[in-house]
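pls design
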C-alpha cells in the first residue's frame, strides 16, 4: 500500500496540487551571507565591532541558507493545496492501541465519526491515524498505519471525505 504523501502526487483527480520546493530563497540567503562574511573579514568598515557583527550575521545567514537548501533538495514538494479553495493541506496524526485498529478502519469506511469518541488516544502507540486536511475541512484524507520496526507502514487504503464530511475526524485528530 502507498502512504498518504506518496499518493498525493497522483491525486490530480481530487484537485490536490503539489507545490514544488522553492530553491531561490536559500540561494539568495547564501549569496548575501557570503557577501556579509567577506565584508566582515576584509574590514571595509574601520570599526571592528561592526566587522565582527557582519561576520557573525553572515555565518548565521549561511547556516540558515544551507539548512533551507538541504530541506528544499530533499523534499520534492513543499506542501499540497486543495485547488477549489486554495487551502493548504496540513498533516495530523493520532496514536491509538493496536487492538482498536479494526474499529478505526470500520469507522473510516462507514464515516460514522461519532464512534471515535469511544476510542482512546495513546502517546506513541504502535498504531496511528494520519490525516491531511485543510483548515476548513473541505477535504480530509485519512489512512491508518502500524509500527513495524523501524517505520510506520500503511495498513489501510486512503479514505477521502469531501464537503465537510470529515470535520469530526479532523477535530478528533486535532484535539
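designed seq:
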Amino acid at each position: 500500500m502507498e502512504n498518504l504523501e506518496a499518493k498525493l502526487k497522483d491525486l490530480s483527480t481530487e484537485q490536490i496540487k503539489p507545490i514544488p520546493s522553492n530553491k531561490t530563497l536559500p540561494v539568495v540567503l547564501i549569496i548575501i551571507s557570503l557577501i556579509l562574511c567577506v565584508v566582515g573579514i576584509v574590514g571595509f568598515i574601520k570599526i571592528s565591532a561592526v566587522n565582527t557583527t557582519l561576520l557573525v550575521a553572515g555565518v548565521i545567514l549561511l547556516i540558515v541558507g544551507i539548512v533551507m537548501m538541504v530541506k528544499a533538495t530533499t523534499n520534492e514538494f513543499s506542501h499540497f493545496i486543495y485547488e477549489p479553495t486554495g487551502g493548504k493541506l496540513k498533516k495530523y496524526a493520532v496514536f491509538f492501541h493496536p487492538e482498536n485498529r479494526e474499529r478505526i478502519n470500520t469507522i473510516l469506511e462507514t464515516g460514522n465519526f461519532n464512534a471515535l469518541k469511544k476510542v482512546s488516544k495513546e502517546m506513541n502507540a504502535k498504531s496511528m491515524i494520519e490525516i491531511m486536511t485543510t483548515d476548513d475541512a473541505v477535504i480530509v484524507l485519512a489512512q491508518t498505519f502500524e509500527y513495524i520496526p523501524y517505520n510506520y507502514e500503511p495498513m489501510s487504503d486512503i479514505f477521502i471525505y469531501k464537503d465537510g464530511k470529515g470535520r469530526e475526524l479532523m477535530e478528533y485528530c486535532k484535539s
